[in-house]
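Ticket reopened. Same input as before:
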Amino acid sequence: MVRSIVANYNLQTFFTSTSKDDPGAIGLIIGQSGTDKDYVLYLAKLPFKYDKSSFGDIDENLILDHAKQITRMLPGGMNVLGIAVAHLEDLTSPLHPKLRHISSNLYKTLDSNRYFHGNHNQGNIILNYSLKTQKYICKEYNISNANLQSVDFKFSPKELKWNRIDCTLLIDEIYYLDKEEVNASLEEHIRAILNQIQEKLNNIQFLIDNQYKNEDDCIETYFKKKINKRGSKKDETDEDKPLEAVALLNHDFSSSLYMHQVVDSSGSLKMSGKIVSRIWVQPKMTLAEVSRFLKQDIICSLAARCEMHIDSLTEEENSEANEFSEISCIHEPPRRVMVSLPDIEPMFSDYLFPGEGQLDAKASVEELLDVKLKGKLNIEDLEGQADFTKYYDDSAQTTTSDNVIKLQSESSGKIMNTPILLAVAVLLISFLMYIYI
Amino acid sequence: MSCHVKICGTVLQRLTYADKPCVGRIYGIYDNTNVTIIGLERKIATDKNLNIFASLPVPIESCGTFTVDNNDASNKFELGKFHVFCNFTTKEIVVESKLENKLNEPPYEIISDAEVFARYLMVQVKGAVPLRCEASKSSIQESFQKLKNQILSENVAFRISQLSIYVLHSKVICDAERENMTIKQLYESLNDNVHDEPNRKKKGKSVTPTILDADLLQKLSVGEADISLNHSPVCVLNKSNKKIINTYCKINSLAMIPFDAQLSDIFKILQIAILKYIVHYEEKFWPCFMENTSLEIDGYHFYPPESGHFLTLLYPAVKSDQDLVTERLSLHQLLMMNENFPMFRRANQFISNNIEVDGPLLNPHVGVRTVDNGGNQCLVRGNYKYYHYCQNGMDDSGWGCAYRSLQTLASWLKLQGYVDREVPTFHEIQKCLVDIKDKPSTFLGSRQWIGSTEVSFVLDTLLGITCKILYVSSGTEISQKGPELVDHFKNQGSPIMIGGGVLAHTILGVDYNPETGSIYFLILDPHYTGSEDLHTIQSKGWCGWKPVSFWQKDSYYNLCLPQVPRGV
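Engineering reply: fixed in the latest deploy. New output:
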């Protein structure tokens, strides 16, 4: 069966706004991949133009890096599906070597962190608009066998309908470190706890809108029932209402991590807090797919913020060597905020470090998604920042050392560390002495 | 206000077993001012911290006291509203109740445990909860407390797949058309579906209680507005050496849900059942922790016919059945149960009849049509599996019947906990007979018959069980063995293999009328070649009651009667 792709009707402007004389435009196709149909939500134009006469000179790394960053912003179930190009000619027959190259590297790049779930199950889409003939050519490039296949592409006659599903999850996880692990880098500790959380996620079942459904029922059945029940008038409001997903965990301890005896531990990494997850799905998506998307969203969001946090630390802090070895340490990765773009129903995520605000989010959204926003960016800051006094108390109780330091990554790269804390303390004492003496 | 008392026949039966005056507690289920007395616990001096109450399924509770042949009524109403007085010498039973400070002697009614269980749906909640903390007494206590709080919170939920429901704190999630049903209606509406299925394999009439499985779930999500943990995830890295426990409690709790209850009542009942289980678990956990042994503890459900109710016992994985023998003996004494037979070894655990397992059927005689002989029915004690021709892809039709009967006997010995060995295969049986030089080496792999003596050799050699051989010269002579067979089923309870000049069979019980001398045999026929279809097996007489004429007049028979060790 030929793969079928439908793009939101207003995305035509991406191509039609480029005239024959302009430099070519290239962008990333963002959307949702279903079993027999893909849905294109957005085309994110790359922030550079290229000379149409030399398509082969495009800097591929810029595209790959961009795709990676955008993937972090996408809600679960949305992926970079492929590449859109507005070009004079048809670049797909035969397939331009550059496009082939970008396609396969795009797959590899998005696959590099398994928790980002960057790839979908299908081949990469190449959507080519020929400025000469004003025609769309859409192909699917299969990475594994390097096959190029035609796909059925069309724009939707009206706005694509999305259903929103919300889930706010509480994480309270502890990972015990053994003697061998304790001196590894923070990055490795985080990877271990993420693995543990992933294992838990595998055992979660979602109950959506408090209705008992089968795994292969689709989301639209949640609304059909209500229409039958209440008559036809209230349908629209109902369909716009987000569905709430309740996460139910069926603990499974088959992992070898658990032992029925007292063991020695050399430390622990505890992760606790709340994750706000929101996904948008096509009405035809089944409950099983929705459940998979929610799980992807949660782990991706956790992995993304941890990666950003680690990137912001100095090497010394990440390795946790020497001077930090005997102390308890609090890490505060950036928090997730939801940002909405004009004319697009699904929201994107951004991550704000402590001290960052709406303006920082606006800047990164504008850059990555190629939008110009008038006025303030509409952000929803739902997770909130931690109150550290509580954690200082907890840590003080559980550690032999009273030295607790907080590693709060900030956009400026300023890090609080022991010498600075000490300096502040000395300053304070001398100030007090100055007053009282 | 009057009250109505029902007493389970098994309770009275056990009271009359008492060989000396005694006192104890009675357990039962209240339903407004009515009570059904289901269990008892004798007060004994050697009570080794055994807690019968903890082992009883919710909602059975302590409801009074009993005395047997003991007129000391000093602690009569200390424990509850009821008092059962049993005069042992005259076997007279008096029930007294104290309601609103008034003493009554309400009439009582004796009912069977089957009648009790007909009113309840048994639900077994399975799952696990983490137990991860510093290995200190205070930390573990705190963790158990947290666990209990969590179970009592709104963050616990259940899924009962066989009823297609999720049970949440606030509501029961099910198909809209089933929302207002009672549990009975819901159960029946789904059970009808089961009968509609074309595959009715293994389904048949059954009188043992049905247990449904429920999954214990932890709710991890909250409403967006919930402020209980109002910040994005933070990580605390702590590097200090500690002794920790990084384990979990396996939950396997049993609850009785009244069929006439509403769906909304399920949550509370299951929640209390889990809480009770964790309290019980904690009691068992401390000795394991103090002795620094494995912290693994498993819960087992038992339903010995003598007790008439379920009991859930928690055994540390590190303790073998042999290690637990004194604990079991006390249990038998507390419950006033026969101390000659094991009832609480792990192998004795209750096996739910709705579990579809591959392989031989369990207890196919349950539900067969009985005969009207006016005698005493004495049957095999406990579970066994039905081995017959052509199982596990092997065509032994025409020669393997005694082997199959032997396998049925071996399965019984295993399921009673007498042996810890798998049922021997044909190869193992033949090899054993060659090894003990009963047969030449050419016997191995052959299709030669074996008889009762060979069966007894194999049971002795491979399983360490000795057998008594009864010889009869003709089929009619078997009828004279009535008293002996009754005695066997009463005091041994093992199935009997019978062979001889002709075919081999398994005898599962006898119905012997001492006045008329008439006797019927409950036969399990190993010559059946079909699939594991209980309906066919029962209706076509592959398992059923047979008169003496079933045995051939002109043929001799040998009966092989496995003799079991006494004790619990």
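Chain B has twelve helices and 25 strands. Residues 194-206 of chain B have pLDDT under 50 and may be disordered. Please confirm and we'll close it.
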